[in-house]
Fold this protein.
Amino acid sequence: MNIIYDNLTDILYIRLDDRIQKVINKQIANDTVLDLGKDEKLVGIEIINASKRIKINNLLQLKDNYQKIAI
């Protein structure tokens, strides 16, 4: 899993599957796009205007803790 946040564009991307693969983008809301891989398996989630919907600092702390555990 990889969590990327761009504070300039306020876009959050959560990549659930790190394998290189073709994906199809499926917009499920004005500010949420899903990346679907083979057999419509969820590969990633993009959230636009993320800071208005999610506590970014809490999520980034979770990311840091996850990376420490995964090492």
Observations:
- Helices lie at 56-70.
- The first strand starts at residue 2 and ends at 6.
